[in-house]
Amino acid sequence: MCTLEKRGDLFLLTLTGDDEHRFHPDTISSVLSLLEQAKSQSTRGSVLITTAHGKFFSNGFDLAWAQAAGSQTGAVNRMHQMVESFKPVIAALFDLPMPTIAALNGHAAASGLMFALSHDYVFMRNDRGVLYMSEVDLGLPLPDYFAAMFAAKIGTSIAKRELLLSGKKIKGEEAVALGIVDSAAHDSVEGVVEATVSLGESLAAKKWNGEVYASIRKSLYPGLCAMLSLTAKIAASP
To answer: What is any Pfam family matched here (predicted)?
Structure first.
């Protein structure tokens, strides 16, 4: 489902298996537990890199599990359960006392894209993989904290329109041009991961105070962090 590996100062969180890495309640619980583990083991210079196996980084919530409830009311309740239980995962990433980097091995859709954008840096491949917000095509409204994320992290009205109102599947070079991701310069999973490891090592070498780093991060996104019940702590530097 997911693993956490520590390589020196780097934590490597990997969504495992060859499926779509959809966020089922069990997956959400597992990711949250590993983020809490990384936080508890963090030191000055720690960095988190998140990636996945296979064709997908994550294809969003487990809609099949929701529909298996057997009724419309049951499906709606299960969707609500996933939306609410996913919020602490996003909060944990914003509260993590270290820089965070997403290495997109493939498609990132819906809550999978939300998960990616919750990182400080996002790298993707230029040969395969798309960013896709499926809500407009599926007839699903955006949860409030999803909307706040896009308002905070996507800089232009054109980028928001292309991503949220067109149902467009955005490839790497266009994602960079729209300011959604930082890089799409590699043709393989290995290339993307190597690039994020290189960035991670350069950030780790700075040996920043993680609590101060997290506080500054949260102060940059006050509206979103308020929805996530996070507050920026004022800490004195030595």
So the answer is: ECH_1
Residues 171/112, Cβ–Cβ less than 8 Å: no
Cα–Cα dist 197/48, whole Å: 10
Containing structural domain, residue 68 = 2-227
Determine the Cα–Cα distance for residues 17 and 64; give it in Å rounded to an integer.
18
Q: How much is the pLDDT for 234?
A: 59
Q: Which two tokens stand for residue 118?
A: 């919750």
pLDDT tens for residues 68-108?
Answer: 999 999 999 999 999 999 999 999 999 999 999 999 999 99
Q: Specify if 232 maps to a domain.
A: no
The mean of the pLDDT values for the chain is 94
pLDDT per position as a tens digit, 124-146:
999 889 999 999 999 999 999 99
Specify the CATH number for the domain of residue 43. Answer: 3.90.226.10
First to last CA, the chain: 41
Query: Does some domain include residue 159?
Result: yes
Distance of CA 81 to the CA centre of its chain: 19
In a domain, 237, yes or no: no
- Residue 28, domain member (yes or no): yes
Handedness of CA 54, 131, 152, 206 (dihedral sign): positive
